[in-house]
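Researcher: We plan to redesign the surface later, but first we want a full-length starting point. Tokens attached.
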């Protein structure tokens, strides 16, 4: 079976309390493990603090997006 997917986006509802919620950590780790085995990259939404960012790095999420990095904007700057 081959999934034609480039990324799996992990919803903000899983990420927003991941630094303190063991269930969110377990579910996210399971998603990441599956994605790695399928050679699919992962993106975490709703990363709004250093603690959240540190936890998703620890869980080996590939990319992160959220207010920790900046507010949404129509203009993309390099």
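Model: Full-length starting sequence:
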């Amino acid at each position: 079976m081959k999934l034609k997917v480039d990324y799996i986006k992990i919803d903000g509802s899983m990420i927003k309390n991941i630094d303190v919620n063991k269930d969110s950590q377990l579910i996210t780790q399971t998603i990441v493990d599956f994605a790695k085995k399928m050679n699919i990259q992962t993106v975490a939404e709703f990363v709004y603090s250093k603690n959240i960012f540190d936890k998703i790095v620890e869980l080996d999420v590939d990319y992160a997006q959220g207010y920790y990095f900046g507010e949404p904007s129509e203009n993309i700057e390099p």
